[in-house]
Amino acid sequence: MLMDELLTDELISAWWRLRQLPGFGTVTTNELLDQLGSPRALLRCDRQQLRSLGLSDTAIERWQFDENLSNGLDNLLNWRRQSGSGVLMVGTKDYPEALASLRDAPTFLYYSGNVQALQRPMIAMVGSRHPTPYGRQWARECAAELAASGITVVSGLALGIDGEAHEGAVRRGSTIAVLGSGPDQIYPARHLGLAHRICDQGILLSEFAPGVTPQARHFPSRNRIISGMTLATIVVEADIKSGTMITARLAAEQGREVFALPGVVSNPLSRGPHQLIREGAALIENANDVLGELGLDIPAPQTNAEQQSLELESPLFENDQANTEFVETETITLREALRVKSPAPKAKPKAPRIAESVDVTSNSQNAVEVPELVTCIDYTTTSIDLIAIRSNLQMARLLPELLQLELDGWLQQQPGGYARIK
């Protein structure tokens, strides 16, 4: 299939209407496209040729004359005309080539940002929404090094590892956030500022049309795009039963490389990566390992100053009290976002703290909420001074809270500090 064909409103209209016919899902549509050889060939087909492709006379009549099949088309075309926004179609220019090779490749992709990010080699990084400080820092630093070497880092804009991957990459190069909502619906809303920065050098990408809000059923579909459009998927901290592990298995099924970061055996989030390594995933320790496995150029070593900058300046690594302006299930549109001024670096929100609700992507009905202070502590000994820095708590308040968490079974006191035990 040719991938350099220019996308026009005429092409979009023809294939959009076809997709609305009963029985024309992504797989059927892609099979038809393979028979035609190019998207534009559909416009040249007469009735007899359409019949030979498997369309019934009823389907042909509806495709040509039923105005109901154009519902939603104006929304798509209007989005395409907006500055900084666009639509990609399988088989046409700029559509990710690796993704187009899948039987269930989305017919249309909607984006906001810089489409040039799709022209670079792409690597996915995924992991837990509740990672350890070690996982957060490793993801951010590895993503930064990959981006600096010319790689576009792909993830899902979720809390945790996804956010860290985007945060690291956007500082040194480009990143793509694949959404489970329309590209104008920022979820979670606390990643509004990050989404704006992504659009400068990368893009927000989705198979869901503008205006579509996030739904739990969208995220498995989103995951196949993350793995399918990339050369490889890196797994950083994940439980055995998690969406991250599903993404990793999708990557393997799609013929992509899978890399896993080993972790401390006492950390439950090490179980996913360790299981993947047992099943044949490549064990990696840094960005050079990833690039070497893929046969790509090795980046220049990062300086100590750059590493310190990444560790200390990342808003995602600070105490989550700085990120509680929105509940997790809240979505904010880019249009609304344009009316929101970006806060000064590290400024505390003026809005009162809002209790967070369960993420819509969660499959667990009985998930235990992890106390905020626990997320600042590693499964290996973490010094009290480092816990104080990460939590932004004064010692007079920190020490009683650590004692209570120890009594509640979350922590264990060690020589030199505390270690998380669950």
Automatic annotation (TrEMBL):
Any GO BP: DNA-mediated transformation
Domain DprA winged helix span(s) in chain numbering: 372-417
One Pfam family it belongs to: DNA_processg_A
Residue ranges constituting the Smf/DprA SLOG domain according to the UniProt record: 88-294
NCBIfam families: dprA
PANTHER family the UniProt entry points to: PROTEIN SMF
Family: Belongs to the DprA/Smf family.
Protein name, entry field: Rossmann fold nucleotide-binding protein Smf possibly involved in DNA uptake
Organism encoding this protein: hydrothermal vent metagenome
